[in-house]
Design brief:
alpha/beta; 7 strands; about 120 residues; Transcription Regulator spoIIAA; about 25% strand
Length: about 120
Amino acid sequence: MLEDYQRVAVSMLAGTAGDIAMVEVLDRQVFEPQVVRQLFGELESILHACRSKNLLIDLSQLQYVSSNALNRLIDLQAMISAAGGRLKLCGLRPEIAEIFAITHLDRHFEIAPDQSTALSTF
């Protein structure tokens, strides 16, 4: 079930807030429309397959992200929040963190420096 994804690596963890789907984005660049579509299709599929309300996305491999992907990330967060869950991001490289700061998305998302820090606050 969780091993058939091309753009992400998935693991499930139990936390105080319930099950957490932890996803590591494997792509270094997410800007081509078909890559964005496939990545977010996989993320939505993971949420439905795992029945988890909580999602941690590790972006430590990501070096470039498009505005389309950022918009889809906002949509994903809205979907998770509407279901009573939480979305957290971790491992942002400096160039990605700068994009989040410039666009003020660092105020919109819960962002942690690494997986363990993010998991400790679920």
